[in-house]
Amino acid sequence: MNPPHAKSQPNLQPCYWPIRELPGLSDRNQIRLQKCGINTTEDLLAAVSTLDKKQELARRLQMHIHHVNKWLALADLARIPSVGCQYCGLLLHSGIISAAQLAQMPIHTLHQQVLRLHVAMIQRRDLCPPIDEIARWIQQAKLLNMAR
Hints:
There is one protein chain. The chain is an all-alpha fold. It has one domain. It has 8 helices and 2 strands; from the N terminus they run ββαααααααα. α4 (about 65-80) packs across α5 (about 85-95). The chain starts with a strand and ends with a helix. The model has no long low-confidence stretch (mean pLDDT about 90). It comes from Desertifilum tharense IPPAS B-1220.
């Protein structure tokens, strides 16, 4: 799947997605976010760039800030081109909450975390992303963090 649009960066372009692509976001919550002017993951990242903004959005949505933090983590991870909306939920459930954290992860450690999650949840080792793909996620996270 190709990202809908990316912002220009010298070496690697972050990807931003329609808000409806974020995993686990209900139709109701999509509509609520859209009513707040949040239509893309880029909009979401801008809307919650500070603690005060996160709290304000949670108040406007009449939701616990925990939900806003989860969406922020997913949107941040999804901006990594090789991760996107396809793998951001997998990373979040593997304990990775940001692109900055991903950039610091040793490849083998993250592969083991993802593999454990796959075995525990779907009992299929063969569906786990290969180590070279996980290495690409980490490398792209590093490049995006350097470009900031």
